[in-house]
Amino acid sequence: MEVINRYIAIKTHVDGAPEESDFELKTSPIALSLAPASNEVIVKNLYVSIDPYQINRMKSYSSSQKNSEFAVGIVPGEAIDTYGVGKVVASGNPEFEKGDIVGGLVSWGEYSVIKPGGMLNKLNPMGFPLSYHVGVLAFSGLTAYAGFFEICKPKKGEKVFVSAASGSVGNLVGQYAKLFGCYVVGCAGSQDKVAFLKEKLGFDDAFNYKEAKDLKSTLKRYFPDGIDIYFDNVGGEMQEAAVDNMNINGRVAVCGVISEYTDDEKRAAPSMMDVIYKRIKIQGFLAGDYLNKFADFFTTTCDHLRTGDIKPLEDISEGVESIPSAFISLFRGQNVGKKMVKIAEE
């Protein structure tokens, strides 16, 4: 049986803020059966992840492209790989059977052909919606968990600041920190998001960074006794302001710098004098660095989900044709929580 596979590609490299015109919906025939000697796996995609870091893969050049196997450059016109969840429709690999639910590196499309050695694992939903396995129980969750516990090494009662706190990672950092016993303040880009952080997710406080005329004084107001931990999702001036307000032996986990991805002029630098004399640790990291912590993260987070102590925050669009607008929304501050696209019903 042969079907037409629809998938999203970029027309040319994207070196600024992404626009709808940068993308195209392409089609190609795909056979839903395999030759007897094949060891490939054909997956019907169900949910695909939409992540800001992909913009760096779309650029004509980014240093990230040579420093991570997950961030290699994207070739215009070709299918774009991403993390996702799907269902096996044909398999020549003895580890997978037709009907298996799987998670791994699939494409921004309706079907994916996974070659030998591709990142693919059988998935036990554990009674949770499949969407959880693209966000809170996947790389967004692991990023928040590892960044907070392994890099920041929190102590109960410490003061924690989270930027982009309503995003896919930030909201989970705040929830983990509160469960651990920390004081948590987040920032977001609208009053509705601020209210959500405080009223629904239990942040001690939050503010709209777009209304802050002076970030350094704003943080001083929310942290009169200083910041112990800063989980950085945006970089730029926010990082400068956070370091200015940090306590001695403060820790900064640099997860993302979305403010700089599409505008190099927003690049900023914290005071190195503060970093030295306050003995501040600033560390960048990738979720893939902490795959050895996945079992601990997964068990802990499943327990919190079952008790209702962690509330998943998801922003789901539908249909492969919605992928470009879903991606663009990340850079316009329109998403709340983990952005993903539902491609098909199970």
Structure overview:
By secondary structure, the protein is of the alpha/beta class. 26% of the residues lie in helices and 27% in strands. Strands 3, 4, 5, 6, 7, 14 and 15 form a 7-stranded mixed sheet that branches. The chain has a 6-stranded parallel sheet with strand order 10-9-8-11-12-13, with helices on both faces. Helix 6 links the parallel strand 11 and strand 12 (246-254). Helix 2 (139-152) packs across helix 3 (170-180) and helix 2 crosses helix 9.
Could you name the CATH class of the largest domain?
Alpha Beta
Q: Could you say how many structural domains there are in total?
A: 2
Q: Beta fraction of the residues?
A: 25-35%
Integer-rounded radius of gyration: 21 Å
Low-pLDDT parts are none
Q: What kind of oligomer do you see? A: single chain
- Summed over residues and divided by their number, the pLDDT gives a mean of 96
Largest beta-sheet characterization = 7 strands, mixed
Helix content: 25-40%
CATH fold topology of the largest domain:
Quinone Oxidoreductase, Chain A, domain 1
Order of helices and strands: EEEHEEEEHEHEHEHEHEHHEHEHE
The DSSP helix count reads: 10
Distance between the termini: 19 Å
Structural class: alpha/beta
Record field, number of beta strands: 15
Tell me the name of the CATH homologous superfamily of the largest domain.
Medium-chain alcohol dehydrogenases, catalytic domain
By CATH, the architecture of the largest domain is named Alpha-Beta Complex
Give the overall silhouette: globular
